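Q: Okay, next protein. This is Formyl-CoA transferase from Psychrobacillus insolitus. I've checked the sequence twice, so it should be correct. Can you predict the 3D structure?
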Amino acid sequence: MKTNMKTKWKSPLEGIRILDLSTVIAAPFGATLLADFGADVIKVEMPGVGDPLRNLGPYYEGEGLRWPGIARNKKSLTLDLRQEEGKEILRKLVKESDMVIENFRTGTLEKWGVGYEALKEVNPDLVMIRVTGYGQTGPYSHKAGFGTPATAFSGFTYLHGFPDRPPISPSFSLTDYVTGIYVAFAAVTALYHRDCHEEGTGQFVDVSLYESMFRMMEFLIADYDVTGTIKERSPGLSGHSAPAGNFLTKDDIWIILVTSSDKTFERLAKAMGREDMLTDERYSTNSVRLTRFDEVNGIVADWVRTKTKDELQTMLDECGVPISQIYSIQDIFEDPQYKARENIVEVEHPRLGKVKIPGVVPKFSETPGSIRQIAPDLGEHTDEILRDILGLDDENIAKLREKKVI
C-alpha cells in the first residue's frame, strides 16, 4: 500500500504497516527499530507458543527480561500459518500492509503457499525483508542459520582471542543485532525506492546473518588479496594503529586507549612528556610504530600506571586523546552521559512493575522516536487487529479461536 511520502508525519514512519513474521533476535530487532520511529508493527506469532525470544534469559521469577526491550512498540497477533484459514488471514493483512519481515528457513513460506511471489499477487507494492543465515541463494541457502555459527563463518570469530588459546565468540548475539540494523536500513531504503521514484515498485530484500558481519571486513579482504596475509587472532586492536589497547591505571581501573592517527599520537606523546618520540624514527609514524607494537604499548602502559583513572581521563580529555574506562553495566547506570542522553528509560510492566530498557536511538531533531507501549503479551492485540483491519465480528473471531487458527 503506497503512502504519500510528502506528508509530514508526527513520526517518520507513521502510516507504514509492517507484518513481523520473524522470531528470536535479528529480524525482530530490525522490526523494533522501525516501530520505535512510528511504524505500525504487527508481530505474527504461533497460537499458544509465540516467539521463543519471549522465554530467553536472563529471567526474574520466570519472566524473560529481554522481551520488554526488544519487542516494544509492537502489537501481537496469534495466527497459525500452517492452516489454510491462517494463510487467508495473512493474505488479507498483506493487502492492507506495506511490508513483511520474515526469517524462516529458505523455501518455508513458499512451501506454505505464502512466499514473496504469492503475496506479491495480493499486493504488488509489498516490500518483503527476508533474513536467513546464508541468504536465499548459493549452496548453503537451505542450511539452518543462527548468529553464533554465522559469526564464525563471516571470519569475525577467527580474529578474537589470544594466539595460544581457542578463538572466542562474542559474549552476546552481536551478529543478530548488527543484522537487525541492516534489516531496518533495507526496509527504509526499499520504501523510499517504492514511494519516491516514478518507476518504484515493491520488492524483496535478501539479508543474511554472515554477510552483515563480513561487510565490515574490508581490511581483511584487501590485505589477503594484495599481500596474502592471514590476520590471526589477538585480544585487542592490532594491525591498525599503535599504541592501542587496554591499560591499567594506578587505582587498578582498566581503560582503553587508541591513537588512530599520527596527530592523535602527537597529542598523547606531549601529554606523556615524550615529545622525543615524535622525532625518533622508531616511533614518528604509525607505520613504524606498528612494527614495534608491543614496545610502544609497553611505554604507554608504564605511563598510564602512574595515573589514577580520573587524572588520566581529565588530562587526555583536555588533550583530545580518546580514552574510556571499560564500563560494566553498573558503571553505565551511574554515568551522567547515559542519563543526559536518556539511553536507559523506565517503563511499566504488567508483572515486573517498573523495568528499565534501552532508550530510542538515533536522536531525530524534528521527528523523534518514542516508546509508545511495552512489549505485548502473546496475542494481546489479536481481536483488535482482526476487527479493526479486516472487519471480522466477534462470532467469526470466536470460531477462529475454536479452530486454533488464532
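A: Here is a summary of the prediction. The chain is about 35% helix and 15% strand. Confidence is low (pLDDT under 50) at residues 1-8.
Q: Noted. On to the next one.
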